[in-house]
Amino acid sequence: MFALFKGKRAELHAAHALYCAIVAQARQPVFYERCGVPDSVDGRFDMICLHVFLVMERLLGEGRQGKILAQKLFDTMFRDMERNLREIGVGDLSLPKHVKRMMKGFNGRASAYHQALKSGALDEVLRRNLYGTVKQPDEGHIAAMTQYIDDNAALLARQSYALIAAGQVEFAPFTGQKDESDDKRNAESRMVA
C-alpha cells in the first residue's frame, strides 16, 4: 500500500517538474521578440499549450504509465491556470467557467496540433492558434515555428522515457529566422565603428 502512495507522489513530482520546464521554455523571450508570438496573456497561454502538447504527445506513446503521467501533467497545468486566474482577480463564481473554457481551448489546440503533425500542415494550425490574434502573421515566423515544433517532436521522441517519467525533459533551442531589425542594428554598428 505504501508503494502505491510512493508511486503517486513520484508521478506528481515528475508532472510538476515537467510543467516547470515547459513554462520556462515557453517564456523564452525569443518567441515573443523574434518570432512574432504576441507577448500577451493569450500568446503566453498558447506557448504553454504548445509545449504541454509536445510533451503529452510523447507521453501518450508510452502506454498506460505514459497516459497516467500525461493526465497528471494536464492536471498540474490547470491547477496553475486556476491559481493564476485567482491572482488576477477572477472570483470563485466565474472561475469554473474560465477554467472550463481554457481546458476546451487546450483540447482543441492539442487535437489540431496532433492532426497537423501527422499531415504536415502545421502552418495553418499555427495561423489559427499561436498567431490567431495577429492580423497578418509573418510567413517567416510561421515557417520558423513549424521547424521548431518539428525539431522538438523529433527530439522528444528520442528522449528516454525513464528520464521524462522522472521529470527531466529537454527542448531543442529555437533556431528560426533572424529578426531583420537585428541585421539592421548590426549593419549600423559596423558603419559607426
What is the fold's blueprint, element by element?
Blueprint: H1 2-26, H2 29-33, H3 41-60, H4 63-87, H5 95-119, H6 122-128, H7 139-158, H8 161-165, H9 180-192
Helix pairs in contact: 1-3, 1-4, 3-4, 3-5, 3-7, 4-5, 5-6, 6-7
Poorly predicted spans: 1-5, 178-193
- State the secondary-structure class: mainly alpha
What is the count of structural domains?
Answer: 1
Query: What's the rounded overall pLDDT mean?
Result: 88
Q: What percent of the residues sit in helical stretches (DSSP H or I)?
A: over 70%
- Note the total helix count: 9
How many E-type strands?
Answer: 0
Outline type: globular
- Whole-angstrom Rg: 18 Å
| Distance linking N and C termini | 71 Å
Order of helices and strands: HHHHHHHHH
* Largest sheet descriptor: none
Strand content: under 5%
